[in-house]
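This follows on from our talk about sequence and fold. I would like you to pick a protein and set down its sequence and fold. Go ahead and set the record down below:
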Amino acid sequence: MKNKSFAIIGGDRRSYELAKLLLEKGHRINLYGFKKLNLDNKIEEAQSIKLALKDVDVVITPIPITRDKININAPYHESDIPIEEVFKNMNKNQLLIGGSTSVCVELKDHYHIRVYDIMDREEMAVLNAIPTAEGALQIALEQTDITLHGSDTMVLGFGRIGKVMAKILSGMGSNVYVLARKHSDISWIKSYGYKAIYIFDLKEKLPNMDVIFNTIPKNIINEELLKLIDPKTLIIDLASMPGGIDYNAADKMDIKVVHALGLPGKVAPVSSARFMLDSIYNIIEELGV
């Protein structure tokens, strides 16, 4: 691909690793939002958002672009970076790529900026599920005192992350129970050798679980269901904010719940950056940027 100029605004370690990969490929990089991170000698941070966005072809924002719907998701920056400041300093010839960008619809229309949600790419969403599932597995190993081999584990949801999670757990010798709503998913779950659970079976199965992995982004485990769960059970919530667990009720019952957000950037930033790079190249090629 012809060399391009990129601005990478905020993000976790995968965004920084992406900057390094783009630089290695011969692209020009402007970085902003990483003041707290020790940067490679070859990369310098722009002094302002305006300078970072000046004369670039593509603007890369985090996955997700924001956690509070107001500011860029920039855990390594010293202060807030309002999303609107990014749009305000862009021009209509530039392309913005980020994750979960639906919160930016009004800004996109107001400033006439092209926006592409990288998580709408199937290849990105599927590959992103791998470090998410591996990160969840790491949490389970660190925060329980049992082996996952021979344990009873439950995966709530059979989307991309649920599929990868169930496969990894099964490979470790765990007794895997998977909750799904669609009859087609139930059939696939059975074909893989997992134990399929319908929503009406949940109350019966929950008390016997050692670890529960939730991937459903709505309140699936409410107070009523939490009462059925053994206090020794670990719940790992992989769903995006606000998650799928009644956290207040779980806290009162002393049930341990880990809301594991942003795992790809924490456990496998280099691999995650490579996945991002491939998808970004595909987007640029398809849009003719």
Remarks:
- The first strand starts at residue 5 and ends at 9.
- The radius of gyration is 21 Å.
- The CA atoms of residues 223 and 248 lie 9 Å apart.
